[in-house]
Specification:
The structure is a single chain. The protein has 102 residues and is of the alpha+beta class. The protein is 37% helix and 19% strand. The protein has four helices and three strands; from the N terminus they run H-H-E-E-H-E-H. It has a three-stranded antiparallel beta sheet with strand order 2-1-3. The chain is globular, with a radius of gyration of 16 Å.
Length: 102
C-alpha cells in the first residue's frame, strides 16, 4: 500500500474507529472516468479534488466527477478577479499539499 494511503487509513482508524478498505489500482485512476471504470460506478459517483490558484492562495474544490468547475464562479465566490483564478501548477500542488496530480 502507498505510504500516504496507509497514513490515511491509520488516521481513520485512530480518529474515527473506522477501518477503511483501501484499494490500489495498478492501471491508475488519473481521471474521474478511469476511477469510475476501476470501481464499477458512474462518473457522477466519483469525487474529484481539483486544486486552483486564486491569487496567492491555493484552493481545493471537491466536486462530482461528472461536473466541471467554473473558474469565473469560483472567482466570484472567493472575491478575487477572474484572471486571478486558474488550475494550480503540479509542482506547487506537490510542494504544498503533498499530492501528485492525477
Amino acid at each position: 500500500m502507498h505510504p500516504r494511503a496507509e497514513a490515511f487509513a491509520e488516521a481513520a482508524r485512530e480518529r474515527y474507529g473506522f477501518d477503511p478498505d483501501v484499494h490500489q489500482f495498478e492501471a491508475g485512476t488519473r481521471t474521474a472516468e478511469a476511477a469510475a471504470r476501476a470501481v464499477g460506478c458512474e462518473v457522477a459517483q466519483i469525487a474529484s479534488s481539483l486544486a486552483f490558484e486564486a491569487g496567492e492562495e491555493l484552493v481545493v474544490v471537491v466536486t462530482s466527477g461528472a461536473n466541471r468547475v467554473s473558474e469565473s464562479k469560483l472567482a466570484a465566490i472567493l472575491g478575487v478577479p477572474e484572471d486571478a483564478v486558474g488550475m494550480a501548477d503540479a509542482d506547487r500542488i506537490k510542494a504544498e499539499l503533498g499530492w501528485s496530480i492525477g
